[in-house]
Specification:
68 residues, mainly beta, five-stranded antiparallel beta sheet, 10% helix
Length: 68
């Protein structure tokens, strides 16, 4: 799955992430592939590292295309 993450760097995404028994969507911009983790910017300047093992799905953020 590593090659798949590199293709998404710099794009706005929605990640489906598993947190225990809960599945949550995370919306943000993919910044970096760090081996076992990825770095994603969520909101204004809030960067988080997410373990790849927690990621269930990756999709392009369709909300980016909507006018404000």
């Amino acid at each position: 799955m590593d090659a798949e993450f590199k293709a998404w760097i710099g794009n706005r995404l929605v990640l489906q992430v598993a947190l225990g028994n809960v599945k949550v969507p995370l919306r943000g911009k993919l910044l970096k592939d760090g081996g076992e983790t990825i770095r994603m910017r969520i909101g204004e300047g809030w960067d988080v590292d997410i373990y790849k093992a927690m990621i269930l799905a990756v999709e392009e953020d369709s909300m980016v295309m909507l006018p404000a």
